[in-house]
Specification:
The protein has helices spanning 2-22, 45-59, 62-69, 100-124, 136-148, 173-182, 196-205, 223-236; strands at residues 28-29, 32-38, 76-83, 90-97, 153-154, 157-163, 185-192, 214-217. By secondary structure, the protein is α/β, with parallel strands linked by helices. Helices cover 49% and strands 19% of the residues. Strands 4-3-2-6-7-8 form a 6-stranded mixed sheet, with helices on both faces. A two-stranded parallel ribbon has the order 1-5. The longest helix has 25 residues, at 100-124. The relative contact order is 0.18. Helix 6 links the parallel strand 6 (157-163) and strand 7. Helix 2 (45-59) packs antiparallel against helix 4 and helix 5 runs parallel beside helix 6.
């Protein structure tokens, strides 16, 4: 009987430990970064492929890993989704990035989604862009909600909005930006294309928060370099 009681007590102890561990996840990052990639009517299948390949190359860039290793916690939270009018397909769910292996795994996940999504885009393209409006405010709202649900604690939350057009659906992005800033997020911009007026539009209507900035790439081949710089700045600002 005493042996059975001992086994029961040990099982109860293990259950208590499991529950305590399940509710005491104290993982802390230097920054949680969610990036929103534009797949609205202004982005064609080729542009989407270049953009997502650039994202995969950027997160695996050595300078990004170096920035992560120089942080106080040596790790970041990272997620990516695509956006247009009311649709936000997930590309990478929340992932903890600490090592080179982590960056490689995330980059591989991005490329896997690229192959599926671009093939679907090619099959469904009809030359019509109905239903794929540029809803910047919706993208900001969705990113802000994702940050609230991030599984990692942090003192810095960053939203990166990547796009090549102005908002043409719903409310202006400034209202969503202000709501996200009230929640403690910083919003940065990454502008695709050579339209300098769009760069200033992002500065006035999209970005905000401590250390907010806009980068631009007028050449598709420079997208990976731009995104790598952006991630490096995002991480460096958290110190």
């Amino acid at each position: 009987m005493s042996r059975l009681l001992g086994i029961a007590a040990f099982a109860f102890y293990c259950a208590v430990v499991d529950v305590r561990e399940a509710f005491s996840d104290d993982t802390t990052t230097d920054v949680n970064i969610v990036t929103a990639l534009d797949i609205s009517e202004s982005i064609d299948a080729v542009g989407m492929r270049i953009m997502i390949e650039g994202m995969a190359q950027a997160i695996a860039a050595p300078e990004v890993l170096s920035a992560i290793r120089n942080g106080r916690h040596h790790q970041i939270g990272f997620a990516v989704f695509a956006w247009h009018q009311g649709i936000y397909p997930e590309i990478v769910s929340w992932s903890l990035i600490e090592t080179q292996s982590d960056t490689e795994v995330v980059a591989a996940r991005i490329m896997e989604r690229l192959n599926v999504d671009i093939e679907l885009e090619a099959r469904t393209a009809t030359g019509s862009s109905v239903g794929r409006m540029t809803d910047l405010s919706g993208a900001i709202d969705h990113a802000s909600d994702m940050l609230l649900k991030a599984p990692y604690g942090t003192d810095r939350n960053v939203i990166n909005i990547v796009g090549n057009g102005r908002d043409n659906f719903g409310v202006e992005p400034a209202s969503s930006r202000d709501a996200a800033l009230d929640r403690g997020a910083t919003i940065n911009g990454a502008v695709l294309g050579a339209d300098r007026s769009l760069y200033y539009y992002y500065r006035l209507e999209v970005i905000g928060g401590p250390g907010a900035f806009v980068l631009s790439a007028d050449d598709p081949t420079k997208i990976a370099e731009m995104l790598a710089r952006k991630f490096r700045f995002d991480i460096a600002m958290a110190r």
